[in-house]
Here is the input.
Amino acid sequence: MSRSHALWRRAEGLEGLSLEDINEIQLLLRGHSVVDWHRLAYTDEAEVRLLLALNCIDVDDPKDRERLREVRLQAARYIAEVLNVRLDERIASTLPWLQLPLIASGKSGSVQRQACMLLKVMHIIYHLDARELRTTLAVSDNQIFSLVEENVTLMIDALRTAGVSIVEFSWSRKTKESLITKMLSKRETNAARVFDRLRFRLIVRDRSDLVPALHIMLRRCIPFNYVVPGQTVNTLIDLDRLTSSAPEEAFAEESEADGAETNEFSGAGFKILNFIADLPVRVGDLLLPEERRTQGRGNVVFVLAEFQVLDRRTAESNEQGENSHAQYKHRQHQHVRVRLLREPRQNGR
Here is the structure.
């Protein structure tokens, strides 16, 4: 790497990022899905342990190891019986689990592709089981939201410790009135599609703090594999510049971004990095004794949360004129009024 390129990476906040780091950040910014990846980029077991910890799995805990074993068996069974694909026995059951992501990060070949396939199916099964568990628990959203808020607050502490200049951090829970307005303003009147009931807002000092902040967020709290595809709005970070900073061999797909549409009520000059993550949360301490004995889907549930990340100058600009939140709400409320008060169509039109 030339000296000028090294200085540029430092100025852009890209210094010290690994290939895996850049791939994960690109996935978040592009709104892609890990299921479409063809390779990981892990280099040692410590990185794999970190990935598992972010997914609320402790490989040193016998119960969590048994949970991994069961999910792995289910995934291998699905691949064999539904997809009619025969897996190498080492991939399906015998290799230590910590080796699978490393094999999926290796040289392309049959075994590497099988490891990727197995991990993708495990990813889906783990999420489905957690979602099913959530529907059976006698636990309120407020209790679970509090656990998420605690985890994210610890992540903010890690950002500060790492030297990221944080100007403002806040969080909020969407009120019922806001939920009603949002659903009335959109074509999809389905509460399941409201992703921002829990929202976190982070303002950093400079644009160069954005990428380091995302790096730490993805390493301390947000598992990249559960960033919700198609829900990212990125008008802040130049993806071409980020891609050009990557090592020569990049494993992530470099197709066009597949993010969410820009909010129609935002001002023309409004800029933001906005994404949704499905955050895993351990709820073992909230389970009733009988639930702990009988539930067989682990002790993790998922909570959708919205993250807004921007720099101070952009945040100030976003509060000027038509970009302001007050103007945004005014346009949104006007749209709802028109939609609700519209006259019936004449002649069946």
The first strand starts at residue 166 and ends at 173.
